[in-house]
Design goal:
The protein is an alpha+beta fold. It folds into 2 domains: 104 residues, 60s Ribosomal Protein L30, Chain: A (2-Layer Sandwich), CATH 3.30.1330.10; 180 residues, PurM-like C-terminal domain (Phosphoribosyl-aminoimidazole Synthetase, Chain A, domain 2, Alpha-Beta Complex), CATH 3.90.650.10. It is built from 10 helices and 13 strands. It has a 7-stranded mixed beta sheet, with helices on both faces. Strand 4, helix 2 and strand 5 form a beta-alpha-beta unit. The termini are far apart. The structure holds cobalt (II) ion (3 copies). The site of one cobalt (II) ion (CO) has 4 residues, from loops.
């Protein structure tokens, strides 16, 4: 076993031989949007993301589904179809799975990928001086909560769904191409929760430039309306002692604790390779944001 539970990472890694290791992960959650197809696609993209976050290439998956007995069959079918089409887009074959009955729907995937044992990306792989590169905007928790409360506008909803359905495949491929070593994906613990995991595992401090952070268009408005999910307050409680803010308002701070669903990759890119990295990203039409740096020290400072 090359990566396991101690310390936990985005997926487990099991060495097969000199040049091949298996990446294994499972994820599932309750609906984040009303449309069954979109929910299935988002959950699949989220499950696949943990393999990309480890530097791996996913190739096999299993469905994990819990569906209410009174749910119309076509709704369950749409959830699975959304997951299957997203997996196909990723070049992943769903070879089976298991469905049970449950009051509240749940859906996700077991995903198996492969990685070269010397090319694993971990939370502890950041080096001092690395730039922190994020591959999706923040604000998914506040937006999906606003959708549930009926406070999100059509365009805000559509933008959030589009990003949550986006695979981290291209960002993962670029990370492999540049042999990056430090990275994770931003999900339930939010930017600062997952950022702190990286800071601690790498023995470094993260400096984040608030002005460089990308947000969904509706996020600032919905933050002012305090549409944060309960998880945002939990994340703040858990992480805030290790975060130093510099002039950000309470809503701005909360947006950094906001839990993300199918969020972007956060990658450490050495300064010497940054220009080439961003150049390749532009050439493949992959949007990326340079949001800060890893420096000696501990914790996170937001400027
Ligand atoms: Co993850
Ligand atoms: Co996960
Ligand atoms: Co079974």
């Amino acid at each position: 076993m090359l990566v396991g539970l101690n310390p936990p990472d985005d997926a487990a890694i099991w060495r097969m031989d000199e040049s091949r290791a298996l990446v294994v992960t499972a994820d599932f959650f309750t609906p984040v949007v009303d449309d069954a197809y979109d929910y299935g696609a988002i959950s699949a993209a989220n499950s696949l993301s943990d393999v990309y976050a480890m530097g791996g290439e996913p190739f096999l998956a299993l469905n994990l589904a819990a569906l209410p007995p009174n749910l119309p069959a076509e709704i369950g079918g749409e959830i699975l179809r959304g997951g299957a089409e997203k997996a196909r887009e990723a070049g992943v074959v769903i070879v089976g799975g298991h469905t049970i009955q449950d009051k509240e729907p749940k859906f996700g995937l077991v995903v198996i990928g492969q990685v070269h044992p010397q090319k694993i990306i971990t939370k502890g792989g950041l080096q001092a001086g690395d730039h922190l590169i994020l591959s999706k905007p923040l604000g998914m928790g506040v937006t999906t909560t606003a959708i549930k409360r009926g406070q999100a506008r059509e365009a805000e909803m559509a933008e959030a769904i589009r990003w949550m359905k986006t695979l981290n495949r291209k960002a993962g491929a670029l990370a492999r191409e540049f042999s990056l070593r430090g990275g994770t994906d931003i999900t339930g613990f939010g930017l600062l929760g997952h950022g702190l995991e990286m800071a601690q595992a790498s023995g470094l401090k993260l400096e984040i430039a608030y002005a460089q952070l990308p947000f969904l268009a509706g996020a600032p408005r919905l933050a002012r309306a305090w549409c944060f999910p309960g998880g945002a307050a939990d994340n703040r409680l858990f992480v805030q002692a290790q975060v130093a803010f510099h002039g950000q308002s309470e809503e701005q701070q909360m947006l950094l604790f906001d839990p993300q669903t199918s969020g972007g990759l956060l990658l450490g890119v050495p300064e010497s390779r940054l220009e080439a990295f961003l150049e390749r990203a532009r050439a493949t039409a992959l949007p990326l944001w340079d949001i800060g740096r890893a420096v000696p020290g501990s914790g996170i400072a937001v400027f």
